[in-house]
Structures are given as structure tokens and as C-alpha cells.
User: What shape does this take?
Amino acid sequence: MTPAGRRAELVARAAAVTAPPADAAEPVRGPGADDPEPRVPRTRPVRVTVELSPMEHKALRGWCAQTSADLDLPVVAGAEVFRALLLLMHSDPEVAEQVRAELARTGGSRRRR
Assistant: This one.
């Protein structure tokens, strides 16, 4: 498959995973069955922040630059890399297991305590 075809496939798969469900137009009931006010499901994007060390950031930027050259794209954004990884973890059990193994190896969290 050509790089452009692979990219188109990833974009299509990402759209399918992130598309709202068919019944998303219907309000979602709150936690109690007797809630008088129906709640509408969230449709706006959710912002996620990832703190990277300077070396991790440099590695990500380098990988994105090399990938954009390999795929003949003007730019590959770091956020798109994370979206593609999320899609792959969701759709490929082997990739998901590799991520789980890495989380087990590193302790699962680098959050500041």
C-alpha cells in the first residue's frame, strides 16, 4: 500500500472510531431514572495535555519530521501521532498489549505526586 493510501486508511479508521453514535442526537438521561432534565452528550473535542521531557519532545519532533518526508506530507503533527496510536491501540490487540507491557514496566504513571 502506498504511504498516501495508508494515511487515507488511518484517517478513515480514525473518523469511524471518533464518529458519534447513530443515536447521538437523542438526549442522554442523567444518573437517576427520574431526572427531569435530559442531558445532551458531549460533542466538542476534549483537550488533553501531555508533558514530555525535552528529549522525548526532540524524539517526537524528529520522528514527525522523518515521517513527513517519508510520506511526502508538508507536516506531521505530534497530536496526529497520538491520535494514530490511540486508534491502533483500540483496533489492534497486539499494539494494545505492547502499550500495557510498557506501562507495567514503567509503573504506569509519570504524574507528579
Q: What stands out?
A: The radius of gyration is 19 Å. Residues 1 and 7 are 10 Å apart (CA to CA). The mean pLDDT is 82.
